[in-house]
Amino acid sequence: MRALPPARSPRWTTLAALVTTGALLTACGSGTDDTGSGKPRSGGTLTFAVGSDAGCVDPQQVGSNDTIYSVRQVVDSLTDQDPRTGKIVPWLARSWDISADTTAFTFHLRSGVTFSDGSPLTAQVVKDNFDAVPKLGVLGTLAEGYLSGVRSTTVVDPLTVKVTFRQPNAQFLQATSTHSLGIESSASVKRSPQQKCSDGVVGSGPFVLKQYVQNQSITLARRKGYAWGSSRWAKKGEAYLDRLVFKVVPEAGVRAGSLRSGQVDAIGSVGRADEAALKGGPVTLQRRANPGIVFGLGFNNARPVLKDARVRRAIRSAVDRKQIADTVFPTGTRPATSVLAHTTPDYTDLGTDLAFDPARAKSLLDTAGWKAGGDGVRTKDGKRLSLTIDWVPNAATNQPALELIQQQLKAVGVQVTLKQLQLPQLTPIQQSGQYDAIWGNITRADPDILRSSFSTKLANFYRVPAGGLDTTLAAQAATTDPAERGRLVERAQRSIVRDAYNVPVVELQTQLGLSTKVHSLAFDASSRIQLHDTWIG
Amino acid sequence: MRGYVIKRLAQAAGVLWAAYTVAFLVLDYLPGDPVTAMAGAGMESGQVDPRQIAALRHEYGFDQPVLTQYTQYLGRAVRGDFGDSVATGRPVTSTLADALPQTLQLTASALLLAVVLGGGLAVAATYTTRRWLRQFLLSLPPLGVSVPTFWVGLLLVESFSFRLRWFPAFGNDGPRALVLPALTLAVPTGAQIAQVLAKSLFTALDQAYVETARAKGAGRWRVHLRHALRNASLPALTVVGLLVGQLIAGSVVVETVFSRDGLGRVTAAAVTAQDIPVVQGVVAFGALIFVTTNLVVDLVYPLLDPRIVVAAGGRASAV
Q1: Does domain A20-289+510-536 have CATH number 3.40.190.10?
Q2: Count of A-B CB contacts under 8 Å
C-alpha cells in the first residue's frame, strides 16, 4: 500500500506512544488553535517554565513531558500525526509503502534536508539511527520499544530506506512520527548515549540546541534556512520565534505566579490548585487529554480473588469516575469512557459499561459469594475481601484519586490498602506478580498500546488469561486496512472493559498555561507541543 | 594546644567516615539502584527488559557484593576521588565544585542576614523597657523557627516578586535573584540565633558584673553591648556552628523553591535518581563543612573569652 503525501495518505490511524513522568500532567479539552489577534510575526523569545529536568537532552532517550517539550524542537521525524484525525502525514518522508502483512515499511525521503552541522539527510543516516536505537536499551525504552522485533534496516537508494520486522507491526508507522524516533545526524548517532544526554544532539529540526544547564535551563535558537517542516504546519520555512528558553521551576506555585506576573510566557503542568491563581490574569489555559491507556487500576488477574470476573466487574461498577475527575484533576478532565483515552485513534465510547452503579457492584459481589460482614468488609469462607493498590508518586493527583477510590470501594464492602512505591520498584513487582493492582497510565497515540499491555504473548504483566483477546490484538497489529483495524481495536476495548481486566478511571489531561501574547501554540497528537508555528505578539 | 588540635582532627575524620558509611548503607538499603531509576525514568508504568537492566548494572558494578562496592568507593574517596555521576557521567568532584559557589553565596548571605537580624532582634528585645514591645519581639523567634521554610519562601515570592515585582521569582542571575532566597533561608536561622542570644543576654544582665558596671556609671547602652553582649555571645556562637549544617540542609528546599542552581538542587536530583556516587560526595562534603566549622568555632572560643583556655590534650574548658 502506498501512502502519498498529505492528501492521499491512507487514513491509517495509529501511532506512537508516549510517556510522561514526574511531570505528568493533565488535560483535556482540546488544543487551542488560537491563531490569535493580528498577523503572525517573526522574532522574539518564548520563555517556558517546566517543572523538572530529565537530566538528558537526547530526544531518543527522554520520556518526560517537561523535557520532550524542548528536545522535540531539535529533531524532525519521518512522519507527523494529525492530532484531530490521528492520520499519519509526511514530514521528512514524502511518502511510504507498507507491505500487506505490515512487516516491511519503505520510506521515500525528501531531498535537500540538512542537519544543523551541514550534513545531508540520506537513507544511510536513517539506517544509522534505527540501527543505534535498539542499543540504547533501557536508556531509550520508548524508542527501543517501537523498534522491537526489527529484522533490518536497509538502504534501497540514497533517499529510500526500508525497515523490516520479524512480525506484523502496524504501530511502527505512528512510531516514526514520535520524538523518540526523531532523526539525528550521523555524527550524533555515533556518540555514546551519555554524551548525547549531556551535550545534546544535532538534528534537522526548526530549532537548534544552544545551551543546556542541568536542572536550570535549555536554550534553543531558530535554525536558519529550515525549509522541510511537517506537511501539517501552517507556516512554511523557518520558525517564527528567534529563541526558546525552557526554565526548570520545580514549584507549581512559583510557575503559576511567574506566568501571572509576566516573568515567563508559558508554563507546563498546571494542576487544579493553580487554576484559581491564574484566573483573571492575562493567561489562557490549554488542555488536551493524553492519548493511550487512561489512569486506572491494572489488576493482577491471576490473584485468587481477582480471578473471579464478578469481583473485577463489581469494582469497575463501584468506582465513581466523575467524582474523581471533578474533585482531584484539573478542570476539563474527563472520566474514562474506555480503556483508551478519547484522543487515541480508534477509541470507542464505552461510557455506559463504565457507569457508576454501586447497587450492581453489591449484587455482583453477593452472587460471587462475598457476604457483607459486621465491620462493613465482605467475607467469604472466613476471608476478607481486601485488596492492595500499588502506586508511585509520579503525579500529584495519584494519592488523592486513590484515596477517593478507597472510600468508594469501601462503600460496597471492599477494603483497599494503598501502598506507595518508588518508580524503580515498579518493574520488578510487575515482573514478579507480587501485587493485586497497580495504578497507572501510559501515553501513546496508537491503539497498539493495548497489545503491549494486555497481550499474553508479550510481557503480560497483568496476568490476563490467554484467549480471544490475544487473537484480536495480534490481528490489529497485522492489518493495513484502517477500517478493519478500527473494528478490531473496538473489539479489543470491549473485551478488556467487559471482562474488567483493568478498571479505567480518568483520562490524563495535559494542561499548559500561556500568556495571551503567545499564539498558535498547539498540541501534537501525543499531547506534547510543536513550536514551529508559535509566535509572540 | 597541639595535642588538642590533633585529637579534634581525629574526631573530625571519624565523623566523616561515619557519615560516609551511614549514607552508603542507607542508599544500599533503599529499593532499586541508579540503573533501575534510569530505566524507569520517563515511564508511566514502565515496562523494561530485565536482562538489559542486568547488563547495565554489571557495567556500573552494582552487581558486586555490597562490601566490595563499599571498599572500592571508600578507597577512592579517601584519595579525593568520588567517581563519576551515574546519571550524567561527569566526575562527582567537578559536579560539586560547579554547584558550590552558588550555594556558598546563598548560605553566606543567609548567615550574615541571620546574624544581623537575629542578633539585632535579641538586643532590641532585651534592651527595650516597653513590656509590650519586648513581648512582641520575643514572640517572633519561635514563630520563625516553626514555620516551614518552603512556606516562607512562597510567601516572600508572592509578595515581593508576583505582586510588587521587585525581585525575580527564580534563577541565579545577579544579586537581585539572591535576595529572596537568602532572606528565606535566614528566617529559621536568625530565629534560632535570636532565641539563644536573648536568653543568654537576660542571664548576663542579671550578673553581678553588670551591677558593678552600672555602679561605676557606665551608660545603659554601653553595659548592654560591651559587657553583657560579649559574655552572652558564646552560646550563640556555638549555635552558629550547628546552624551551618542546617543552612546546607535548608539550601535543598530554598534552591528548589527558587529554582536556583547549587548543591541543594544537585542533592535533590541525585537522591531522586539514586545517583549513589553524587549522594556520597554530597554527604562527605557536607560532613566536612560541618566538622570544620565546629572545629573553628571551638578554636575561636579562647579568643573571645580569655577565661577559656585549652588544656594540653584536653577540651576547651572554662577555668
Answers
A1: yes
A2: 162
Chain B closest CA to A255's CA: distance in Å?
A: 9
Which three cell numbers mark A239?
Answer: 520558525
A69-86: average pLDDT: 96
State residue B48's pLDDT score: 61
Q: What are A326-344's pLDDT values in tens digits?
A: 999 999 999 999 999 999 9
pLDDT, tens digit, 9 for 90 and up, residues B9-66: 888 888 889 988 988 888 878 766 677 666 655 445 445 666 777 777 787 777 888 8
Residue A363: enclosing H or E segment and its boundaries?
A: helix A358-367
Break chain A into its structural domains and give their ranges: 20-289+510-536, 292-507
Residues B117-144: what's their mean pLDDT?
91
Q: How many CB atoms lie within 10 A of CB B246?
A: 17
Q: Which of B304, B182, B170, B281 is nearest to B235 (CA)?
A: B304
Question: In this complex, do A138 and B31 lie within 8 Å of one another by their Cβ atoms?
Answer: no
Q: Which residues of A touch B47 (CB under 8 A)?
A: 141, 145, 427, 430, 452, 459, 461
Per the model's pLDDT, the better-predicted residue between A153 and A198 turns out to be A153
C-beta atoms of A216 and B172 within 8 A: yes
**B271 interface with A at CB cutoff 8 Å:** no
Asked whether the domain spanning A292-507 has the same topology as the one spanning A20-289+510-536, the reply is no
Chain A residues lying within 8 Å of B51, measured CB to CB: none
- pLDDT recorded at residue B1: 65
Distance from C-alpha of B96 to C-alpha of B251, rounded to nearest angstrom: 14
Q: Give the global pTM.
A: 0.84
Q: Name the DSSP letter for residue A356.
A: -
Q: Is the CATH number 3.10.105.10 carried by domain A292-507? A: yes
- B299's enclosing H/E stretch is helix B276-304
Mean pLDDT value of segment B147-173: 89
Q: Which one, of B38, B15, B71, lies nearest residue B270 by Cα? A: B38
Judging contacts by C-beta atoms under 8 Å, the chain B residues touching residue A21 are 41-44
Q: How far is CA B280 from the centre of its chain?
A: 17
Phi and psi torsions of A488, nearest 5°:
-65, -40
pLDDT for the residue B179: 93
Phi, psi of A471 (to 5 degrees): -60, -45
Residue A279 pLDDT greater than 60, yes or no: yes
Question: Distance of alpha carbon B188 from its chain centroid, rounded?
Answer: 11
Cell 497489529: give the residue.
A477
Query: Touching check for A425 and chain B: CB below 8 Å?
Result: yes
Q: A438 CB near a chain B CB, below 8 Å?
A: yes
CA-wise closest residue to A15 among A141, A173, A130, A169:
A173
Rg of the Cα atoms in chain A:
23
- Give the angle B46-B47-B51 at the CA atoms, nearest 5°: 125
B 188-247 residues inside an 8 A Cβ radius of A: none
* B43 in A contact zone (CB under 8 Å): yes
The 3-state DSSP class for residue B44 equals coil
Question: How close A58 comes to chain B (CA, Å)?
Answer: 12
Judge whether A136 and A61 are in contact, CB under 8 Å.
yes
**CA–CA separation, A53 vs A62, rounded Å?**
10
Pick the residue from chain A with its C-alpha nearest to B172.
A216
Contacting B residues, span 88-107, partner chain A, CB-CB under 8 Å: 88-90
- Residue-wise pLDDT for A96-136, tens only, equals 999 999 999 999 999 999 999 999 999 999 999 999 998 88
Residue B274 has pLDDT above 80, yes or no: no
pLDDT digits (tens, 9 = 90+) for A467-479: 899 999 999 999 9
Q: What's the ipTM?
A: 0.78
Query: Could you identify the residue written with the cell 525552557?
Result: A246
Q: Say if B44 is an interface residue toward chain A (CB within 8 Å).
A: yes
Place of cell 542537519: A115
- Over 50: is that where the pLDDT of A273 sits? yes
What secondary structure letter does DSSP report for B91? Answer: B
